[in-house]
Structure formats: structure tokens, C-alpha cells
Write a structure and sequence with these properties.
six-stranded mixed β-sheet; Rossmann fold; seven-stranded mixed β-sheet; Gyrase A, domain 2; alpha/beta; 3 domains; 15 helices; 451 residues; Four Helix Bundle (Hemerythrin (Met), subunit A)
Length: 451
């Protein structure tokens, strides 16, 4: 933390601009030593300065240099950003000069790590930086920005403050029972406050399940026997000829994948090989993969033909379907011959076709309904956004249930106090008030260089 770090903050390659970011106590001095223009040690804070990067009086590039002085910077250290011309040779040469003058190449995510360690952002906000970079939809962008703004952290901090006040009251009652002018903390007082926190924490946990959908999307496996139109349905969702469509059974012999956005939520579609009995070695491998995709999918679409009676393969697939499935009756533009027994089927059934422009709209509507996409899109995005955060919140929630059981059994207050401290600590881990070095190193190692 006492050295000065540097990294290329833009994608390396041909482009109009490349940005090289330097952070640390010697950032301004190092850049000033290779810069020809105004003396960067004397320029005003938050200014952009025109000049040249030079090496032994040789001009390397024409640049704009941004100077931002601590503590009002992202890392709370001096930061200098060199805006040079894009291109591999020029960018690498400028980086090389900065390294030669004493800077160290930054590790992945080290700028954000310094921002966290220097108290500029908390751990939830730090994780949201990477989420924002990786956001593929408008909803995931909103989720990341909401966390980066500190809204989620404020809720967690409010919970911790209320617990801290409760702990302080319990401590006073235990240590100074002789004072008559202090409010007596009873099990009923504790129960009331804990119940309130429990309800609000449960609400956040439940709603945060939506964040998984927003961030990771929904994995959809399209299954069925050969020639029922699985590939055609995939192509309709993607609005492109991603999968080959023919009348030959077994055309799709391996997994075909594609992504599409429905109401701003990313859907990861997997068109599987037609599931049937086959002696073809390649097709058999594809069929095995299809069954594996069914098990791993968030949603399974079983496609059958409207103009044909169900055969044994169709019937067997119906028995294998999980609850998170929709039976898609394709080719509803043709005469109906299918013989579905509605009394034995638990899954939703939707009739579609891939000929008409709006032929699969009923399927899209059913998917929106199943995953409450309208509710997600109208939400305030105040969610915990990853497995680490949600897991810690659930641990805190389970401790609350232990406290409620203890209160019911009239467990002494000093023992209840221990569990309240545990909740306070678990919530602290969410925002990074309590952390291990190993956790921090692991989290920030997943960031890109220069961030």
C-alpha cells in the first residue's frame, strides 16, 4: 500500500484513446519525470493538462494528463491518468517508461482494492464495480449502480446500528444493575427489536433472489425428440439462424447456445440434440448432453408437435420433466392431432408456431409470468447481489431464529447477547467491516487489470 501502482485501464489494441492509470504517493512525481509540459507537481487539482511523454528528449506520444490529488480520489491516493493514442506499441511504451521510473504493475483489481482498504468504498460497493463492468442488460446495470450508490450498504449499516444500540443497553444493564435511571432491558424488549430486524432481513433475502436472475440470467434448455422444431424456436428467440433447421432427424447433434433478452433479463438458451434411441455414436453423445442440460437448467422447454400424436419418446420425456418446465406444443398453425392427457400433467402447456411473426409470443408471456419479470423490472433494485452476500444474510437470519428460540425458553440475557453479537458480525462481513486477507485477495483477483 506504500508503493505506486500502474496499469492500462482500457482494452489493449487499436483505438482512438488508451488510458494508463497510476495511483500512489509518487504518482505525480513519476509521471512528471517523463512529461513535457506544465510542471505537474504545481498544477491545480482535478485538471487535464496537454503535453508530451518523452524519453531522453525523444517524443513518445502526444497526451492529455489528468491529475487528481488525494484524498478526494477513487483510491484516496494521488492518481494520474495518461490519455495517450490507442495502439499496442504506443501504450506499452508509455507503460514501460512509468515502470522504469519506479511504479509497480498493478495486480488485477488493485485500484478498487485500495479504494476499499482506504475506506473510500465498502465491500458491497467494491463488488458492484465488477458487476457494473460485466453488466450485459439494463437491469443488471441498474442493480450494479444501486449497490455502488451505497443504498444496500446503508440498509445493512442501519441493522448493525440498531443491534449495536441493543447490545449497549444490555451491557449497561448487566454491568450497572444498581442504577435506577437506566431503562431495563427485558427479553420482551429484545424480542420486539429482533423480530423487526428479522422481518426486514427476510424481505431483503427473498428479494435478493431476483438479483441472481438479473446478474446471471436464466438458463433455458430446449428439449424434445428430433424434428419437433426445437431449433426453429431457438432461432425465433434469437432473431437469427443460429441453429441449422432441416427435415432430417438428428440434424442437431450437439449443444447449440444463444442469448436473448426478454424484458431486459438475459436468457441463455441451449438447443439440445433430439432425444431418441440412436446407434450413431456422435448422436448418442449429444443425447447424453441433452439430458445433462435438462438437469442443470433453470427452465426446461419440452417441444412436441401439435399435428402428431405423442409417441413413446414424447411420453417418456414428459415423465422426466422437472416442475420448472413448460410443454411447448409447436406447429399450432397445423391441424391438431396431439393427444395430451391434461389430467396427468403438472407443467404449464403453451401452443406456438414459428411461422407467424408473433407465433411464440404466448411462450414469452408464460416465461415472463413464471419468473415474475414484471415485478423484477418494477423493483427498486435494493438487493444483495451475489452468493457471498446472500449466504451471510441467511446465516444472520438463522441466528435470529436461534435467539427467538432462546427467548422462548427464557435463556439468560447475557447468553442472548452473544448471539446478537454474532448477527452484528455476520452483517459486518457483508459490507467488509470484518474480513480476512484471504477473502479480500480472492475477491479482487477476479477483477480486470486497471480497475
Amino acid at each position: 500500500m506504500n508503493d505506486t501502482i500502474v496499469a492500462i485501464s482500457t482494452a489493449l489494441g487499436v483505438g482512438a484513446i488508451s488510458i494508463i492509470r497510476i495511483s500512489g504517493k509518487d504518482a505525480i512525481k513519476i509521471v512528471n519525470s517523463i512529461y513535457k509540459g506544465k510542471d505537474l507537481t504545481k498544477v491545480d487539482n482535478n485538471t487535464i493538462n496537454y503535453g508530451h511523454i518523452v524519453n531522453d528528449n525523444e517524443i513518445i506520444d502526444e497526451v492529455l494528463v489528468s491529475v487528481m490529488k488525494s484524498p478526494k480520489t477513487f483510491t484516496r491516493e494521488d492518481i494520474v491518468e495518461i490519455n495517450c493514442h490507442g495502439g499496442i506499441a504506443t501504450t506499452n511504451k508509455v507503460l514501460e517508461l512509468v515502470l522504469l521510473k519506479g511504479a509497480r504493475l498493478a495486480e488485477p483489481g488493485e485500484f478498487t482494492k485500495r479504494a476499499f482498504l482506504n475506506g473510500r468504498i465498502d465491500l458491497v460497493e467494491a463488488e458492484s464495480v465488477m458487476d457494473l463492468i460485466n453488466a450485459q442488460t439494463e437491469q443488471s446495470r441498474k442493480l450494479s449502480i444501486n449497490q455502488l450508490s451505497g443504498k444496500v450498504s446503508s440498509i445493512i449499516k442501519d441493522f448493525r446500528q440498531r443491534l449495536l444500540e441493543l447490545l449497549a443497553s444490555i451491557e449497561v444493564n448487566i454491568d450497572y444493575p444498581e442504577y435506577e435511571d437506566i431503562a431495563v432491558v427485558t427479553n420482551q424488549n429484545i424480542k420486539s427489536e429482533i423480530e423487526n430486524i428479522k422481518l426486514n432481513l427476510k424481505k431483503i433475502i427473498n428479494e435478493s433472489e431476483n438479483s441472481k436472475i438479473i446478474k446471471n440470467g436464466i438458463k433455458v434448455a430446449i428439449v424434445g425428440r428430433p424434428n419437433v422444431g426445437k431449433s426453429s424456436i431457438l432461432n425465433c428467440f434469437l432473431n437469427e439462424e443460429k441453429a441449422i433447421v432441416t427435415d432430417i432427424a438428428g440434424t442437431t447433434r450437439d449443444i447449440v447456445e444463444g442469448q436473448a433478452s426478454i424484458d431486459g433479463i438475459l436468457f441463455n438458451f441451449v438447443d439440445t440434440a433430439g432425444i431418441r434411441y440412436s446407434e450413431d455414436i456422435v448422436e448418442k453423445i449429444g443425447i447424453a448432453k441433452s439430458k445433462q442440460e435438462m438437469a442443470n437448467a433453470d427452465l426446461v422447454l419440452l417441444v412436441v408437435n401439435n399435428n402428431e400424436k405423442l409417441n413413446n419418446e414424447d411420453k417418456e420425456l414428459i415423465t422426466l420433466l422437472p416442475k420448472n418446465a413448460i410443454i411447448v406444443v409447436n406447429k399450432n398453425d397445423l391441424d391438431k392431432e396431439i393427444d395430451l392427457d391434461l389430467t396427468t400433467i403438472e407443467q404449464e402447456i403453451v401452443f406456438v408456431n414459428t411461422i407467424q411473426t408473433n407465433g411464440i409470443d404466448p411462450l414469452k408471456d408464460k416465461i415472463k409470468e413464471m419468473f415474475n419479470l414484471e415485478k423484477i423490472n418494477n423493483g427498486d433494485y435494493t438487493y444483495l447481489s451475489n452468493a457471498r452476500q446472500i449466504s451471510l444474510a441467511k446465516e444472520a437470519y438463522n441466528i435470529i431464529k436461534d435467539i427467538e428460540e432462546g427467548l422462548k425458553n427464557e435463556v439468560p440475557t447475557d447468553l442472548i447477547e452473544i448471539d446478537i453479537k454474532r448477527i452484528w458480525e455476520k452483517l459486518g462481513e457483508i459490507i467488509g467491516e470484518n474480513y480476512s486477507d484471504e477473502l479480500i485477495d480472492q475477491l479482487f483477483s477476479q477483477f480486470c487489470l486497471g480497475k
